[in-house]
Amino acid sequence: MPRTVADKMGLKPGMRSVLRGAPAKVVRSMRLPALRRAATLRGKFDYVHLFVKSKAQLDRQFPQAASHLAPGGKLWVSWPKGGRADSDLKLSSVIRIGYSHGMVESTTLSVSPEWSGMQFTRPRPGKRYKNSYGRLRRD
After folding, report:
1. What is the per-residue pLDDT across 57-113, written as a single tens digit (0 to 9) for each?
2. Does 128 map to a domain?
3. Which residues pair with 109 in a beta bridge?
4. Domain with 15 in it: what CATH number?
5. Residue 124 buriedness (CB in 10 A; 0-12 / 13-18 / 19+)
6. Beta-carbon count within 10 A of 61 CB
């Protein structure tokens, strides 16, 4: 049996989750397991998924989403592929914004024919991250 998008994302039944801006058609195509879905960002989450169409929108939503991740939680960001839907997002700008908010990219995949997705994680202490698209803040 082929792996679903949800399988590739590492999603498991029972994970506490919130999806923001997700098109219903895309959510159906991901074949999500039985998640504990919340309507708002309150408390800690195992899986947060932002669907955004602009740099400004991502830059605004990213820090709040990251602050609600449980230890080991997954923060996924999806954006329209190839500038569709008048999006100004590209892989490089998604990475740059993630780094500017203290997170590092982990995995990239095709969420649907129209949407790309990238997972962000917290940096590991002591590890040096080099990315030509972004730099971590040094506090």
Report:
1. 999 999 999 999 999 999 999 999 987 778 999 999 999 999 999 999 989 999 999
2. no
3. 117
4. 3.40.50.150
5. exposed
6. 19
